[in-house]
Design the sequence.
């Protein structure tokens, strides 16, 4: 049986290039909508940042994490902008860039 972190990593790997998902969205897709904080813990402990694009996860307002484990909030913004993700007033334009994966 997979751990909560493994389920979260499986979801994060599916977020397409140039799109973002919210902590709550990742939690719900991973199987428990109450895991938003667990998603944050999992991403902070990401064992494989080259293959688990944790920088594609933002809060529900589209804001990046100041505590981004791999270089801080500015680095997270740089990584997203490099994929063409647009920002408005310091946060991701969620209407344009939020991943629209259906919940099953």
Sequence:
């Amino acid at each position: 049986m997979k751990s909560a972190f493994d389920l979260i990593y499986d979801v994060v790997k599916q977020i397409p290039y140039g799109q973002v998902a919210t902590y709550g969205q990742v939690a719900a897709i991973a199987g428990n909508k109450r895991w938003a904080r667990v998603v944050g813990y999992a991403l902070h402990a990401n064992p494989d940042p080259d293959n688990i694009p944790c920088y594609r996860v933002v809060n529900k307002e589209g804001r990046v994490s100041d505590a981004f484990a791999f270089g801080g909030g500015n680095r997270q913004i740089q990584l997203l902008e490099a994929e063409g993700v647009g920002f408005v007033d310091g946060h991701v334009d969620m209407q344009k860039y939020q991943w629209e994966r259906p919940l099953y």
Observations:
- The first strand starts at residue 21 and ends at 22.
- Residues 50 and 74 are 18 Å apart (CA to CA).
- The chain has a mean pLDDT of 94.
- The chain has five helices and four strands.
